[in-house]
């Protein structure tokens, strides 16, 4: 079961990422006129992934190589992300960029990390939670999540968001049924009960579920704003709420987050990761996997990597050509994104 849930987590995040990417930074009003569920809207019905999926892929690779040892995991992940930066990723978060540049200057982790409440650690945390479910006696989900967080972000809110995503993904991967609100609330309180802002968000999630608020209406209650869409206390509660609000429906889970506007690719990737951890690959309509066309992170490569990490196969490296190929891909991807941005200048407004 864990292999299927792990594959579902990585692929679900990729599908959410690709669906949300064309609408990043747009307002909810504009998205309502553009967004049409049923397929990707980046390039003639085809989808591509962003840094959200690339991070999750690298995290899972390194988790497998390190076998869940937090110290080795952090060291290898830092090295992998530093090499990833050389591939000129499009849309990298500013805090992550600064932290990796400081790492290249030779600064230790505690000095390279940036005090930012961004979503970088949370967006790569779901696969950590799923992996920790594989070795509950050896892999401490909190230790692994903190190791991945403190590499780039030295901020309590960023840590809380990442811990919440990891713990809930672990719970989802281990559960035969959709976790109930009482179980979810206990995990959310455990990771951030000392932060009044987080406690307030827990209460708002509970109230929204009781009132059966649509996800965009819930976004209003937490003060979600388009220009601050990458704030972890927006992306994380939105992803969690949509996952709870639309159990059993991965596409609607991510679509509801996209309709809120803002950092749509990250929010949808996080929601898709949680839904995929609950449903496995079977919960992702085949059409969305068949039309997700990217290289070197193809669907088959993502599936194979997750199956190796969550199964019993030996760990394999990235290969010498991975990062050069990723750089070539990113240069062509940038051209496509620029063309899409010009398209967004046209109606409908």
Automatic annotation (TrEMBL):
InterPro entries: ADP-ribosylglycohydrolase, Ribosyl_crysJ1, Ribosyl_crysJ1_sf. The chain crosses the membrane at residues 81-101, 320-342. Keywords: Magnesium, Membrane, Metal-binding, Transmembrane, Transmembrane helix. SUPFAM superfamilies: ADP-ribosylglycohydrolase. It comes from the Bacteria. Its cofactor is Mg(2+). Mg(2+) binds at residues 50-52, 263, 265-266. Binds 2 magnesium ions per subunit. GO terms for molecular function: metal ion binding. This is ADP-ribosylglycohydrolase family protein.
